Recover the amino acids of this structure.
């Protein structure tokens, strides 16, 4: 019986002297699978098919609502800021807002939002005015966008109800603590001050 030699056909070294085809194609197939998996992950991550992620959508809606609230407040005359009382201040009103939340919570765009709960600070930029002595309107508020024009309710103390109790009366429980402990975020406050100074300079 012939004994196998180094030249005898084996699985690793077939008689043809070539590697089996499946071993030649296997690395290529594996590389394709890896690329397809990476592409699928990228599609899911960027949500090209389904649109932005819930977090990205919420951030976009929040930014749009912030801009819409700011515009609505600034278009009102200083005497028209309901709940703040009468004022004879005359100048450009600049505002900053903070959104606590909105309804419906699953709104995909700002146009889907009916009600916003938040906080606002507005200041009247009069000629030669300064920030410290400017007329300001500050309070949590509820803004309704399902009316034309939008309507709002300022959350302020009354003669018989304290500010704290008023918050508990008007705002949903999930936003009450924010209303009691937070105002504008630092970046929004800095931007409001910048816009106030610019408005005074151009008054």
């Amino acid at each position: 019986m012939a004994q196998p030699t180094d030249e005898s056909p084996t699985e690793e070294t077939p008689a043809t002297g070539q590697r089996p085809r499946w071993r030649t194609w296997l690395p290529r197939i594996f590389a394709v699978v890896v690329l397809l998996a990476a592409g699928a992950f990228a599609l899911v991550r960027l949500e090209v098919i389904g649109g932005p992620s819930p977090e990205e959508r919420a951030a976009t809606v929040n930014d749009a609502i912030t801009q819409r609230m700011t515009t609505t407040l600034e278009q009102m005359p200083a005497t028209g800021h309901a709940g703040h009382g009468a004022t004879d201040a005359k100048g450009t009103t600049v505002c900053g807002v903070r959104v606590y939340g909105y309804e419906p919570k699953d709104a995909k765009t700002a146009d889907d939002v009916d009600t916003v709960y938040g906080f606002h600070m507005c200041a009247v930029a009069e000629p030669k005015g300064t920030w410290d002595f400017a007329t300001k309107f500050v309070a949590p508020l509820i803004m309704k966008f399902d009316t034309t024009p939008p309507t709002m309710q300022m959350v302020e103390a009354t003669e018989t109800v304290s500010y704290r109790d008023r918050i508990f009366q008007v705002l949903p429980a999930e936003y009450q603590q924010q209303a009691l402990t937070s105002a504008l975020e630092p970046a929004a406050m800095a931007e409001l001050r910048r816009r106030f100074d610019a408005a005074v300079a151009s008054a």
User: Anything to note?
Assistant: DSSP finds five helices and four strands in the chain.
